[in-house]
Design a protein that fits this description.
By secondary structure, this protein is an alpha/beta fold. The chain has helices spanning about 10-60, 90-95, 100-105, 115-130, 185, 195-205, 310-315; strands spanning about 145, 160, 165-170, 225-230, 260, 270, 285, 290-295, 300-305. The chain has one domain (about 35-329). Strands 5-3-4-8-9 form a 5-stranded mixed beta sheet, covered by helices on one side. A two-stranded antiparallel ribbon has the order 1-2. A hairpin with a 4-residue loop joins strand 8 (about 290-295) and strand 9.
Length: about 325
């Protein structure tokens, strides 16, 4: 009588099965990654949509788009209202309209931060307060990061909130520290300012800039054809370090490349690239297929990295006078 044949796998058969499983996983993994990125893109787009809704509520309340404040050495002050007297920037000014009133009001009623240590301590808490809507999920987590740069009107926190989005400053790059301290707090507008209002108006053609109060009527190219804000470029080497000069302060600071970006002809959008363009002035994102830009009407557009530089520049200029075809972006 012959012995019965074993029913187990041979080594060769086992290796074949393992190989097939490996191939299937290799084929499936890119699809899974693509699905996850699509979900992150959708979430990022929704963040900008919420920023747009908050901005339009600001327009309804004050008659102008959110100002970008005084300069990078100032943070928001709840006792100074909205518009040209407010040292805080674009994202500080929309906090009350995105259900973040508690952050906006930190330090309210505590007097002049030049003389009030309590006020400076509360404004430090503001700089550390993380808002998840201001983060792109494809780039980094919504947590505090190392605090590098201080403010003239606030203490330095141990960690700093960040933003992956920026307001449209137009086609002419301008950044500055803002006015001397404390003169402007008591004597605005008769204070030692870095540049005159006339100079700034001549160099500012965006929607949110230093001390700006741009009304819908000032957007002569139409709100559907003008950027309001969008994703900002960042060197991946500094996602978490806080040491990129264009990402070393909080979202609530005044006008600067941390919270503003520009569309000058040479500043075409770019996908985040390790080691490239630290201290950037351009828009861009971590998404491989393009970036999201918020328009002044509250809509969010998907913009290709290959967008025509002239079209991109004119979309950043509220008064270019150049027609933008619907197919351009």
């Amino acid at each position: 009588m012959r012995p019965s044949k074993g029913s187990g796998f041979t080594l060769v058969e086992l290796l074949v099965v393992i190989t097939i499983i490996g191939i299937l996983i290799g084929l499936l993994l890119p699809a899974v990654q693509a699905a996850r990125e699509a979900a992150r893109r959708l979430q990022c787009k929704n963040h900008l949509y919420q920023i747009g809704r908050a901005s339009l509520q600001h327009v309804d309340s004050h008659g102008f788009y959110p100002s970008s404040g005084w300069g990078y050495l100032w943070t928001g002050d709840p006792d100074r209202g909205f518009g040209h007297r407010q040292p805080g920037g674009f994202f500080y000014n929309i906090l009350p309209y995105m259900e973040q009133e508690a952050i906006h009001q930190l330090g309210a009623g505590l007097g002049d931060p030049h003389t009030s240590s309590a006020k400076r301590a509360e404004l430090a808490k503001q700089k550390a307060a993380v808002v998840s809507i201001l983060h792109c999920p494809s780039r980094r987590r919504a947590i505090g990061y190392p605090a590098i740069e201080g403010s003239r009107n606030a203490n330095m926190p141990s960690t700093m909130a960040k933003t992956d989005y920026a307001a449209n400053g137009g086609t002419r790059v301008y950044t500055g520290a803002g006015p001397s301290y404390p003169g402007c707090l008591q004597n605005y507008p008769n204070c030692n300012w870095s540049n005159s209002d006339t100079w700034l108006d001549a160099h500012f053609d965006g929607v949110s800039g230093e001390r700006s109060e741009v009304q819908p009527a000032h957007i002569r190219d139409g709100t559907t054809n003008t950027y309001l804000a969008g994703e900002k470029y960042l060197n991946p080497n500094h996602y978490h370090t806080g040491r990129d000069g264009a990402d070393n302060n909080s979202p609530y600071q005044g006008h600067d490349w941390d919270v503003n970006r520009w569309t000058r002809l040479d500043l075409v959008p770019r996908q985040d690239t390790p080691g490239v363009d630290t201290m950037s002035s351009r828009f861009g994102s971590a998404h491989p297929s393009g970036l999201h830009m918020l328009m002044c009407d509250g809509s969010v557009q998907n913009i290709s990295y290959a967008i025509d530089p002239d079209v991109h520049r004119n979309l950043g200029n509220r008064k270019s006078g150049v027609p933008i075809p619907a197919t351009a972006f």
